[in-house]
Amino acid sequence: MVYCSHCDDDCPYVKDPDNGFTCCGMCGKVIDQDMYTDEPTFVKDSSGQSRLSGHIIGIAKGGSLSRERTEEKGRDEIWQIVHGLHVSGGDDIICTAHNFYKLALDNNFTRGRRTTHVAASCLYIACRRSEKPYLLIDFSDYLHISVYVLGAIFLQLCQVLLLGEHPIVQKLVDPSLFIHRFTERLLGKRDNAVSDTALRIVASMKRDWMQTGRKPSGLCGAALYIAALSHGHMYTKADISAVVHVCEATLFKRLIEFENTDSGSLTVCMCSS
């Protein structure tokens, strides 16, 4: 099954080995195109020297012990991250991420990249597919690497797996998914009253189109800051910034934007009603 943007669904696909096309089995849209030839071709580089063009693709063989070890290592890395970040879903989320990892292996995506980084990218795709409340920066913080490095690997992996037009990548991340997790991280415990107020504020932001073009963490931070103060929790903007991973300037900007909306003039009781 592959995702077809024309059908807007995961559809069966048809491969034409003679022309190198991969087409949607429902509407016929060309999903991918790979041209293979058994004759070597040459191109000239910038220095004028001729070099071999394209890539050499080996003949597929049965599963080897090395492949099994590589798959097992990837699964172990995914398991470590799942338990380190307390990702819910158990074996289901691990299996989903591991399936993406095996697809990455099939496309030689792991070559030249650290197993941990590829495993984290696969798990992030699985989390977005299952609407888990995790941001890419959560994974980069856990692995102690730059979020831009991990983000580049994630985008490259999506391109290799033909997910560029899939809702997993294109769909906006719903800020509401993160409210309960951020509230618990801020207060050190679950507080449904604060979470519910923050969720209603986020809903108001959506109605006023504040979600468009903005990262969910900034909106969550602004909503959580207002909700916490309204319930008597005196937290500073710096406290909120540390929880949602945005700078104070961004948080302040989101608060000003919300203040300028119609919902910004409502009281907490009016928002909750």
TrEMBL record:
Which GO biological process entries does UniProt record here?
transcription preinitiation complex assembly
Q: Which GO terms describe its cellular component?
A: nucleus; transcription factor TFIIIB complex; transcription preinitiation complex
Q: GO: which molecular function terms?
A: RNA polymerase III general transcription initiation factor activity; RNA polymerase III type 3 promoter sequence-specific DNA binding; TBP-class protein binding
Q: Which Pfam family name is an example for this entry?
A: TFIIB
Q: Which UniProt keywords apply?
A: Transcription, Transcription regulation
Instruction: Give start and end of each Cyclin-like domain.
Output: 76-159, 177-260
Keyword check for Iron-sulfur, yes or no: no
Question: Record's SMART domains?
Answer: CYCLIN (SM00385)
- Natural source organism: Triticum turgidum subsp. durum (Durum wheat)
The protein, known as: Cyclin-like domain-containing protein
Is this entry keyworded Transcription regulation? yes
